[in-house]
Write a structure and sequence with these properties.
About 35% of the residues lie in helices and about 25% in strands. The protein has 9 helices and 10 strands. The strands form 2 sheets. It has a 6-stranded mixed sheet with strand order 6-7-8-3-9-10, sandwiched between helices. Strands 2-1-4-5 form a 4-stranded antiparallel sheet, covered by helices on one side. The longest helix is centred in the last third of the chain and has 18 residues. The radius of gyration is 18 Å and the shape is globular.
Length: about 250
Amino acid sequence: MSAILEIKNLNKHFGGIHVANNINMSIKKGEMSAIIGPNGAGKTTLFNLITGFIPSDDGKVFFEGQDITNTRPETIVKLGIIRAFQVASVFLEETVYDNIYLASLAHFNKSAKIFADRMIFKDVHEHTEFILKKLGLFDCKDLKASELSHGDMKALDIAIALTLQPKILLLDEPTAGMAPEERFKMMHLIKELHDYFKLTLVFIEHDMDIVFSIAQTIRVLVQGQLIAEGNPDYIRQHEGVIEAYLGKEVF
């Protein structure tokens, strides 16, 4: 399977702190992968560098073979790299339906095949209802976003990201602030979306039970450095990862 996103020798300093230290990654098309590491490891910074929210000091980011290093965020969105944030970014006083409808309206193309030729929608309303149903939000579509539970609010944020027709979906701690039952419900939903839409999906997560249960590839950042990457079994046994982050008690 070919790489859809390649990161080569990526560096970023904030003052004297090296928050991205010569990072190299090759993310395959269709991959479900996790980025883990202690607080301050540079995980969110890496997402910011990929999506153009902060400029790199050195190195390159390639998407589908195209150099997108330091490209503006709105251009990166149009290319198909979509990000959902740790804190949901929604219109709180609008209904759930209108939040998704407005996002669909802004990015919908009637002649476009949505999600890699799987389906064509007649209009924005049809597309909106489809997204509502896939995210389990149809029954609360008439509620204001401010009235949603924390878990449903995060689901709405992901729903809005999906309306932008991502080729890569980046999720920054999608289960942050959730109770254990909500966390597993959310990650089950994310896995379903990955499988259905054949997305390339990269998520940052601190819950190791979730990470090891659904990620195909795990990448570990410590102090801005990528210290290991591989399948869950490889990471589980990696001495450097155990010492720097996981600890023996995880196993």
